Amino acid sequence: MARKKIALVGGGQIGGNLALYAAQRELGDVVIYDIPEKEGLVKGKALDIAEQLPVDGCDATLVGASSLDAIANADVVIVTAGIPRKPGMSREDLLRINLGIIEIVAHGVKSHAPRAFCIIITNPLDSMVYAFQKASGLPHNKVCGMAGVLDAARYRAFVAMELGISVKDVQALVLGGHGPSMVPISRLATAGGVPVTELIPADRLKAIEDRTREAGTEIVKLYGTGSAFFSPAMSAIAMAESYLKDQKRVLPCAAYCTGQYAIRDLYVGVPAVIGANGIERILEVKLTAEEAAALKKTVDAVQQSVNEVNMS
Ligand code: APR
Predict the structure, then answer these.
(1) Per the confidence metrics, is the pTM higher than 0.85?
(2) Is the CB of 226 under 6 A from ligand 1?
(3) Catalytic residue among 107, 112, 140, 178
């Protein structure tokens, strides 16, 4: 059986790590595509990783390219093209700059890799996924955004740190947009099956929720010159793997809602089943009045950002 092809559109910080993780997991052959000014950089990253693989004992072919022809017929496309957030810049500040880039990329993917499962990472995430789907016209089930896996992973990491336990045993769900209005559902978070609400005092749990909402900004401040790149890359790889291997994992991500959680015609973070048909299903859970109100707030924020996309 021929290997799958994973095309990375954008070969910067996240793109480089996507290439590394995809190769190390032997998900398929990898193409790192970027603008002509970055051709040397992406060719270098491809070669550097290829030279690591004998040590890892992993097989994958890696190519760096600045021609879109290189992404032809990819099975998965992961988009990080754009600029990352700088200190003092909100995700929304990024909208105007990254929207122009996403529209160009969407047309390129539509003409070169129309069958691909497309995972968007570029911020502001929810409106960039919307813009990518709108400009490409690709089916909604084949276009989604990486955010919830990362937001939930951050929450899980903080809970594990608080309790001094393995991250493997902490499960959590974060709903809504990828920004400060996201909604961690602490009521449903568990550590080894035990509700975390029974293990962590309410004030500490509230602090964990607040830190989760601001986790991206915390990293931006620490790095000083860009945003998180290891954790976003690994989160998108989990989504790509679930699609390529038809794992049907339940992964929170920005999926197109058609009435679920009273959200219509928007990409918002919800728990989704990812399998060979892309986003196969959205799982719904009954929310408390407080959670529903918080979700409405985050959906309104996403809608506002989408309105800006539609007006430009
Ligand atoms: N086509 C392909 N690549 C592009 C294009 C384009 N039209 N325009 C810009 N790029 C490339 C840049 O040249 C750069 O190499 O996108 C890459 C982005 O990489 P970084 O600047 O290192 O940013 P990164 O940290 O990877 O984040 C990318 O993901 O999480 C979000 O906020 C983050 O929007 C940002 C994106």
Answers:
(1) yes
(2) yes
(3) 178
Residue 16: CB within 6 Å of ligand 1? no
- Single-letter residue type at 123: N
DSSP designation for 4: P
Omega into 201 within 30° of 0, i.e. cis?
no
Contact 58, 98 (CB under 8 A): no
Q: How confident is the model at residue 187 (pLDDT cuts 50, 70, 90)?
A: very high
Q: Which domains does the chain have, with CATH numbers?
A: 5-145 (3.40.50.720), 148-311 (3.90.110.10)
Among this protein's residues, is 107 annotated catalytic? no
- List the one residue out of 284, 287, 282, 283 whose CA is nearest residue 255: 282
The DSSP string of 224-291 is SSS---HHHHHHHHHHHHHHHTT--EEEEEEEEEESGGG-EEEEEEEEEEEETTEEEEE---PPPHHH
Ligand 1 centroid – CA 102 distance (Å): 10
Q: Residue 245 above 80 pLDDT?
A: yes
Banded pLDDT at 91 (limits 50, 70, 90): low
On whether the CB atoms of residues 125 and 94 are closer than 8 A, the answer is: no
Q: Which residues contact 12 (CB under 8 A, 6 or more apart)?
A: 34, 38, 80, 84, 229
CB 35 near ligand 1, within 6 Å:
yes
Q: How far is the CA of 80 from the centre of ligand 1 (A)?
A: 5
Cα–Cα distance for residue pair 212/224, rounded to 1 Å:
19
| H or E segment to which residue 9 belongs | strand 5-9
